[in-house]
């Protein structure tokens, strides 16, 4: 299903626990500033088990947690089963906010059994929301890395999710292949999905099929050399990875109540960072109908149960409109890179953008930022998603379009590779200086 686009007994002295936050919402509101200000001299220590290099882990998973007594154990056990990593590379930050259901006791009981060092932060804050919690967790992870090795990788997932044993390794492989960030896919827990109305999985299968087809169309008409097909377009906090330097450069996770994950990836892309969407990075998420974050996955599932004909995600438009959007994006990228976006305003007239706004957009230094701004400014590029009853016909149309697009795309890819090879000077037959 397409979704995307959460002195205490047993907590030993090694856990990073701000217990005073329970007594004062004012002090807990400052927790985010605390995590941002951590330095090598102020970062609290941890004595969690596991072989930890003197410099500390360079890969840290950040999990925001709120009232997950039923699912946190499965989440932590899955993280503890990660393979393909050298001992001591992996650390875990758990940001427990507003927990009132015994989650903290469960975490305390499991913490000693985990093979990686764990830092636990607790807070009570009446204005807490998903973006605030994820940012606090990821900021603490970034500070831990910066206090030790200096640079590394931050991963984030949800407390009701289960990651596969190779989740961290697959994310790191994508980063080592040249990406600055990795966005994974999700699938519903089968034991919970089986309890949903039959119409919902059927719709989800159609949406997944159409989403894969239109994603391939996008890669044909507006290719990203850093994110080639096969890929996907899901952006969800249950599976994100980012280099710590890139995380800081875009200002961290947006502190917004809803859609912080999508806004974060959009910021990375608009600032020129390479985001990979590999299809083989998949996390299992809960199919529950009552979630922790308003507007999150649980609300989406419940809304589609209550209204089976609700519109699909915004990007799931009719094929002709999608193809036009992709062509326009590609054209705008070429205009911006060539420096002609400000001189030739025909694109603005076509999109219904005023000349003043067009010049402001053209002056943006980054191509991704300019293209996104042009798309937002155009009244003619408002997304018009289809409903589920239109999906079978649009799937047929997308398949027909790809019959024509795939051969052309392969030829274009070969030409691009040839141009790239031609731009590399040949090696001299003799060593320099001889």
Architecture blueprint of SSEs:
Layout: H1 25-29, H2 31-37, E1 59-65, H3 72-80, E2 90-97, H4 103-111, E3 118-123, H5 130-147, E4 153-156, H6 167-176, E5 181-183, E6 185-188, H7 190-193, H8 199-221, E7 240-243, H9 244-249, H10 260-270, E8 275-276, E9 282-285, H11 297-306, H12 319-338, H13 346-351, H14 355-362, H15 367-377, H16 391-422
Parallel strand pairs: 1-2, 1-4, 2-3, 5-8, 6-9
Antiparallel strand pairs: 4-7, 5-7
Helix pairs in contact: 2-5, 3-4, 8-12, 8-16, 12-15, 14-15
Written overview of the protein:
- With 434 residues, the chain is an alpha/beta fold.
- It has 2 domains: 288 residues, Spore Coat Polysaccharide Biosynthesis Protein SpsA, Chain A; 97 residues, no CATH class.
- It is 44% helix and 10% strand.
- It has 16 helices and 9 strands.
- It has a 7-stranded mixed β-sheet with strand order 3-2-1-4-7-5-8, with helices on both faces.
- The radius of gyration is 23 Å and the shape is globular.
- It starts with 24 loop residues before the first helix and ends in a 12-residue tail after the last helix.
- Keywords: Cell membrane, Glycosyltransferase, Membrane, Transferase.
- One of its GO terms (cellular component) is plasma membrane.
Label this structure with key terms.
434 residues, 2 domains, Nucleotide-diphossugar_trans, transferase, Glyco_trans_2-like, membrane, alpha/beta, glycosyltransferase activity, 7-stranded mixed beta sheet
């Amino acid at each position: 299903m397409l979704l995307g686009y959460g002195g205490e007994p047993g907590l030993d002295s090694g856990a990073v626990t701000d217990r005073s936050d329970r007594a004062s919402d004012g002090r807990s509101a400052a927790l985010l500033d605390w995590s941002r200000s951590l330095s090598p001299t102020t970062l609290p220590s941890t004595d969690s088990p596991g072989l930890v290099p003197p410099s500390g882990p360079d890969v840290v998973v950040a999990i925001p947690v709120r009232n997950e007594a039923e699912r946190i154990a499965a989440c932590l056990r899955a993280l503890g089963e990660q393979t393909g990593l050298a001992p001591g590379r992996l650390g875990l930050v758990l940001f427990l906010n507003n927990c009132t259901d015994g989650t903290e006791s469960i975490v305390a009981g499991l913490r000693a059994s985990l093979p990686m060092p764990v830092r636990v932060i607790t807070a009570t804050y009446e204005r807490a929301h998903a973006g605030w919690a994820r940012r606090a967790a990821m900021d603490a992870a970034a500070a831990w890395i910066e206090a030790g090795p200096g640079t590394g990788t931050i991963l984030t997932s949800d407390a009701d999710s289960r990651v596969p044993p190779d989740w961290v390794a697959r994310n790191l492989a994508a980063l080592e292949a040249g990406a600055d960030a990795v966005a994974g896919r999700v699938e519903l827990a089968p034991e919970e999905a089986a309890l949903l109305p039959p119409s919902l999985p059927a719709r989800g299968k159609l949406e997944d099929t159409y989403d894969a087809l239109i994603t391939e169309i996008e890669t044909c008409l507006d290719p990203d050399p850093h994110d080639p097909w096969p890929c996907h377009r899901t952006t969800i906090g249950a599976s994100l990875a980012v280099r710590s330097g890139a995380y800081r450069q875009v200002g961290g996770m947006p502190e917004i109540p809803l859609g912080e994950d999508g806004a974060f990836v959009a910021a990375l892309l608009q600032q020129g960072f390479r985001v990979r969407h590999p299809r083989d990075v998949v996390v299992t998420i809960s199919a529950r109908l009552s979630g922790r974050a308003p507007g999150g996955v649980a609300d989406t599932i419940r809304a589609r149960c209550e209204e089976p004909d609700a519109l699909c995600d915004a990007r799931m438009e009719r094929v002709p409109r999608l193809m036009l959007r992709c062509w326009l994006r590609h054209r705008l990228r070429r205009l911006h890179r060539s420096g002609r976006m400000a001189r030739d305003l025909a694109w603005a007239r076509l999109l219904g953008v005023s000349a003043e706004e067009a010049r402001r957009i053209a002056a943006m230094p980054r191509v991704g930022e300019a293209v996104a701004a042009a798309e937002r400014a155009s009244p003619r590029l408002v997304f018009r998603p289809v409903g589920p009853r239109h999906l079978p016909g649009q799937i047929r149309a997308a398949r027909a379009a790809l019959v024509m697009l795939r051969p052309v795309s392969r030829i274009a890819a070969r030409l691009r590779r040839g141009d790239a090879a031609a731009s590399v000077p040949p090696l001299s037959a003799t060593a320099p200086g001889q």
